[in-house]
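Pipeline run #58 for the internal structure catalog. This entry was flagged by the ingest filter as a single-chain record with no existing model, so it goes straight to prediction. Upstream metadata was stripped on purpose; only the residue string is passed forward. Reviewer on rotation: M.T. Logging verbosity set to normal.
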Amino acid sequence: MILVSACLAGVNCKYNGGNSLDDAVAGLVANGMAIPVCPEQLGGCPTPRLKAEISGGTGADVLDGKCRVIRENGEDATEEFIRGADEALKIAKLACVRKAVLKSRSPSCGCGKIYDGTFSGKLTNGSGVTAELLKRNGIDVITEKEYSE
């Protein structure tokens, strides 16, 4: 079983109320090979919601208490992002997940590159909170772009 970002499966759970449908990922869900999750919704974030980025670090730094997840209005969303990551990990463990296909660049699901916390569209090296927690628990995490290659 594979864990996937729900927005990639066509679920309208992105910050703006839309989705990031990826036909290959949606096919995994339709064929019963993947479980869709939205860590931000699992953590209690509403949809739609303000954009959020990791300020001053990466998902690893958030989990280690070294930086925060901040919304574009300055509101701290760190607790929701950590809670959502924890819930996604619980689901992954229950389903014996070994691989996850997550939405690139997201402060939750991003893997390898995430937005830099300035809300300027610039990217930095690192992973989102959920991607990092899954990796720390032995789950192979890739983006939808890597999956489709």
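catalog note: The two ends are 20 Å apart (CA to CA).
catalog note: The chain has one domain: 2-148.
status: ready for reviewer M.T.
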